[in-house]
Amino acid sequence: MLENKNIILGVCGSIAAYKSAFLVRLLVKAGANVKVILTPDGANFITPLTLATLSKNPVYTQYFEEETGVWSNHVELGLWADLIIIAPISANTLAKLATGICDNLLTAVYLSAKCPVYVAPAMDLDMWKHETTQNNIERISSFGNTVIAPANGELASGLWGEGRMAEPEEIVSFLSNSIKKSLPLFGKKVLVTAGPTYEAIDPVRFIGNHSSGKMGFALADEMAKLGAEVTLIAGPTAQKADQILKRIDVVSAQEMFDACTVAFAETDITVMCAAVADYRPKQVATQKIKKQDSGLFLELEKTTDILAFLGAAKKPHQVLVGFALETNDEENYAKGKLEKKNLDLVVLNSLNDKGAGFKSDTNKITIFNKALERTIFEMKSKTAVAKDICTAILKIAK
Ligand code: C5P
Predict the structure, then answer these.
(1) 305 CB less than 6 Å from ligand 1?
(2) Distance in angstroms (rounded) separating the CA atoms of residues 290 and 386
C-alpha cells in the first residue's frame, strides 16, 4: 500500500521522537519516498543527520537554511505529499493545527497540503487528558485529520497512563490499512481466471492452447492494487502472482469450472480471462497411446462454458466480464457473446491486430458494454490494458 507513496513525516519535540528513526526505516522499507520535517524543538530530540541518512533525503527544519541560503518551499512540499504523518505530535503542535497557527515549516506545510494527514500524539498522561488537548483532538478530527491514538503504559516521566506514542509498526500498519480502505475496490471480492486449460488425451499428452496467462495475471494484480480481495484461478502457466492474491491452480476446463462455481457465489466482480478449452477428449486413455501405422481419431466432447453458466446464475449485484478472442467478424461475435452469456462487459481482442492476443506483452482491446456501446483502445502493455479494463469495471460496479 505504501509503495511509491510520497510521505512527509513531521517530528515534534517529544522524547518519542527517538522512535521516528524506526518509523522512517519502516516506511522506506515499505517502498515509500519519505521527507522529514523537524520542528525546531523536534531537532533537540533527534538529529537531522540520523533522519536524513535513513530517509535518503535532506531533512527540513526551517524555512530558510542560513548557511546555504536555501529556501524550503512549504507549498511545494505540501503538494508533493500523498500523505502526512506527524509522529510524535506534541500538545503544542496539536494546538497549532487546531487553531491554524503557522509559525514553523511543519505547520505551514500542513496548511498547504491537500492530502490526508495523520497524527500520532505523545505526551504525559495529564497533558493528554487535559480538556484543551482533548478539544484540540476533536477539532483537528473534525477537519478530516486522523488521530492514531496513544497507548497506555510507562511514560518518560515515570508515570503510567495514556500518552505513549503508538509503536512505529502499528503506525505503518494503520497507514497501510487506511490507504487500503480508501481504495475503490475495497471490500469487493473479485474472481479472475487466467491462462489455458489442458485436456488430457492420455497420461502424457493433452490438447491445449497458446494462452500465456499474462493478461489475466495483470488484471488480477491491478484489481488487488485497487483494494479488491482477489481470487485468481489459473490454468497451467509460468506466470507469478502477486503475494496478496489467493491463487488456485487448475489444469482442465472441468477443474476450472469446479473452482469457479465455488468462488462465484461469494464474488462481486468476475473477469473470465482464461482461454478455456471448448472441447476435450471423450475418453482419456489410462495408458500412453502407442503409435500405430494408421492415423488416430480422437472423439471430442464439449466442455461446459463456464462464463455462460455463471451468466445464467448471476445475481443483480454481480458484475460479469468476458473476453472474446476472434479472428474474423470480431465485433459481431463479441456483441453476440455479451448478450448470449448475459455479460456486463465484453473485452474483444482480435488476432488480426499485431501485438494483440496470446503471449505478447502488449494487447489491443475494444470494450463493449451492455448498451453495446464501443470503446476502442490503443495498443498498450498488458498492465496498461488491465488498468483500462478496471476503469471500465469501476464505472459499472455496484
Ligand atoms: O465463446 P468463447 O469461448 O469465445 O468465449 C470466450 C469467453 O468465455 C472467455 O471469457 C472465456 O474465459 C470464457 N469461456 C469459459 N468457458 C469455456 C469457454 C470459454 O468460461 N468453456
Answers:
(1) yes
(2) 44
- 10 Å Cβ neighbour count for 63? 13
Rounded to 5 degrees, φ, ψ at 248 are: -120, 120
Q: Domain coordinates of the chain in residue numbers?
A: 6-181, 189-396
pLDDT one-digit tens code per residue, 236-263: 999 998 877 899 999 999 999 999 999 9
In the reported structure, the alpha carbon of residue 177 is separated from the centroid of ligand 1 by a whole-number distance in angstroms of 36
93 lines ligand 1 (CB under 6 A): no
**Cβ of 257 less than 6 Å from ligand 1:** no
Q: Which of 48, 47, 75, 53 is nearest to 63 (CA)?
A: 75
The CATH number of 189-396, from 3.40.50.10190, 2.60.120.260, 3.40.50.10300, 3.40.50.880, is: 3.40.50.10300
SS3 call for 384: helix
DSSP string, 315-359: -TT-EEEEEEEESSSHHHHHHHHHHHTT-SEEEEEETTSTT-SSS
Compute the distance between CA of residue 19 and CA of residue 166 in angstroms, rounded to an integer.
10
Q: Do domains 6-181 and 189-396 have the same CATH topology?
A: yes
**Coil, strand, or helix at residue 390?**
helix
Q: Which residue has the cell 477539532?
A: 139
pTM reported for the whole predicted model? 0.82
Helices 18-29/48-55 angle, 10° precision = 10
Strand order in the sheet with 229-234: 246-249, 229-234, 189-194, 269-272, 319-326, 345-350, 366-369, 374-376
Torsion from C-alpha of 272, 275, 280, 285, nearest 10 degrees: -110
Testing ligand 1's pocket by substitution, the residue of 304, 307, 329, 332 carrying the most ligand atoms inside 8 A of its CB is 307
Identity at 250, one-letter amino acid code = V
Q: Which residue has the cell 487466467?
A: 194
Task: Identify whether the C-beta of residue 120 lies closer than 8 Å to the C-beta of residue 171.
Answer: yes
Ranges of residues in the chain with a pLDDT under 50 are none
Asked, as a colleague might, if the bond just before 88 is cis with ω within 30 of 0, I would say yes
CATH code for the part of the protein at 6-181: 3.40.50.1950
> How far from each other are the two terminal CA atoms of the chain, in whole angstroms?
24
pLDDT in tens, 47-98: 999 999 999 999 999 887 777 777 778 888 999 999 999 999 999 999 999 9
Q: CA angle, 110 as apex, 104 and 114 as ends, to 5°?
A: 155
